[in-house]
UniProtKB/TrEMBL annotation:
GO molecular function, one term: sulfur carrier activity
Main location class: cytoplasm
Gene Ontology cellular-component annotations: sulfurtransferase complex
InterPro entries reported for this sequence: DsrEFH-like, Sulphur_relay_DsrE/F-like, Sulphur_relay_TusD/DsrE
The encoding gene: tusD
SUPFAM superfamilies reported for this sequence: DsrEFH-like (SSF75169)
Signal peptide start and end residues: none
Protein name per Swiss-Prot or TrEMBL: Sulfurtransferase complex subunit TusD
Source organism (scientific name): Acinetobacter defluvii
Length: 122
C-alpha cells in the first residue's frame, strides 16, 4: 500500500511533527510512501530558519530520511522560499531552499494523488 503524506502545516505546528513521525515509521517498516510540501508546509524547506540548540529541527529531521522532498514552487515563492534557478528567473537576490528539497509544480501532486492508495494531510 502506498501512502502520500501531504504536509500543509507550518513547522511550528504539531501536525508537521506528526507527519515526520509517520514518515519515519513507514520508512522503518519499509513501506512505500511519498511526501509533498504544500501551503504553509513549504516553510519547512526554508534554510534560513533559526532554532535554539535545545530544540529539534524539523528541516534537518526530514533531510535525515533521505527521501525525495518535493515542494510546491508557487506556494514556496509566495512565502519567500526559492532555489537558485527560480531566484534568477524572478530576479530575487538570494536563494534559501534547503538541501535535499526540490521545487516542483502541482502536476507532481496530481500524479502522486492518482498513484497512491491513501492520502494523509497534516
Amino acid at each position: 500500500m502506498s501512502t502520500l503524506l501531504l504536509i500543509t502545516s507550518a513547522p511550528s505546528s504539531i501536525h508537521a511533527w506528526h507527519a515526520l513521525g509517520l514518515a519515519q515509521a513507514l520508512q522503518a517498516k519499509n513501506q512505500d510512501f511519498r511526501v509533498f510540501f504544500y501551503q504553509d508546509g513549504v516553510t519547512i524547506a526554508n534554510n534560513l530558519q533559526w532554532l535554539p540548540d535545545d530544540q529539534r529541527n524539523l528541516l534537518k529531521e526530514w533531510q535525515k530520511l533521505k527521501v525525495r522532498l518535493p515542494v510546491c514552487v508557487s506556494a514556496a515563492l509566495a512565502r519567500g522560499i526559492t532555489d537558485l534557478e527560480n531566484a534568477k528567473r524572478h530576479q530575487i537576490p538570494a536563494h534559501n531552499l534547503a538541501k535535499g528539497f526540490e521545487l516542483v509544480g502541482l502536476g507532481e501532486l496530481a500524479d502522486a494523488v492518482e498513484s497512491c492508495d491513501r492520502l494523509l494531510q497534516f
